[in-house]
Design brief:
Elements lengths: L2 H11 L5 E4 L4 E5 L12 E6 L2 E5 L3 H6 L11 H14 L2 E3 L2 E5 L5 H16 L6 H19 L5 E5 L12 E5 L5 E7 L2 H17 L3 E7 L7 H10 L2 E3 L6 H13 L2
Helix pairs in contact: 1-4, 3-4, 6-7
Length: about 260
């Protein structure tokens, strides 16, 4: 099938505005009217590899998303689930960040339609509502702790098994196997910060030996008085996760080395 026939099929199947522009032998830039939320067009090329046609974004989609999101956030939590579901639903492969779809039996129109739908669905991660984004914070926190702390040295949602059988004073992640255990809190709002303050004070009252670390979603959103009280009882705080991973990791690793 020659390129003009392919272009006419794409126009008939999807939109009359679709155009193909040659960029070399058996390689064509695909122009469509579809855009990301910021107005940039989807980036796609149609090319032939080993006598087989494919559509590829050549890594542009993920690169575009990193304008608004940290690259690591695309690979974990709710965002990863959204992306994985989109790839699976539309038959798109992720080859090291390059998204591509095979074109079977010269079904160019169907393949392009599926590819466009997948890219648009993936770009929806930037539209997560504030509440939805909040759910990803705990997913991101948990994924970060799993990557940083060995499994045998961490417990999520820990509470003291003897002094707090009902789990009223829980810790998001406890690092053990050291003389003074480490309590790591993931905090999003005033209520969680108050609860963490109360928990730390209770642990002190019980005579539990520990060091505390707090990682905020955004510390600037915490009420100043709430934060001031919390600061009195917490040993180390990080204002956010995304911008402090390079600081949090060595701090936790240093605490694990202390016996």
């Amino acid at each position: 099938m020659d390129v003009h026939t392919i272009e006419r099929e794409l126009q008939a199947r999807i939109s009359e505005l679709i155009r193909l522009r040659s960029e070399g032998i058996d390689r064509y830039r695909v122009f469509t009217p579809f855009r990301f939320s910021d107005g940039d067009h989807l980036a796609m090329v149609l090319k032939q590899e080993n006598e087989h046609w494919i559509l590829s974004d050549e890594g542009h989609t993920y690169m575009h998303l990193t304008y608004e999101l940290d690259e690591g956030d695309l690979l974990q939590g709710t965002r990863q689930t959204i992306i994985a579901n989109a790839l699976s639903a539309f038959g798109v492969d992720d080859l090291g960040g390059e998204l591509r779809i095979d074109i079977p039996a010269e079904q160019f129109g169907d393949a392009l339609y599926s590819f466009i739908q997948a890219l648009l669905k993936i770009s929806d991660v930037t539209f997560l509502s504030r509440e939805r984004v909040r759910t990803t914070f705990f997913d991101d926190f948990k994924a970060f702790m799993i990557a940083t702390i060995p499994e045998e040295r961490r417990i999520f949602d820990w509470h003291h098994p003897e002094l707090d059988r009902d789990g009223k004073y829980s810790v998001n992640c406890r690092i053990n196997q050291r003389a003074k255990q480490v309590f790591v809190y993931a905090l999003q709002n005033d209520a969680q910060t108050r609860d963490a303050t109360i928990s730390l004070l209770q642990f002190e009252k019980w005579g539990v030996e520990f060091e505390s670390v707090a990682i905020f979603e955004n510390q600037e959103e915490i009420n100043r008085r709430v934060l001031a009280r919390f600061s009195d009882v917490c040993d180390k705080q990080f204002s956010n996760l995304d911008g402090n991973k390079e600081r949090i990791t060595p701090h936790l690793q240093e605490l694990m080395r202390i016996t």
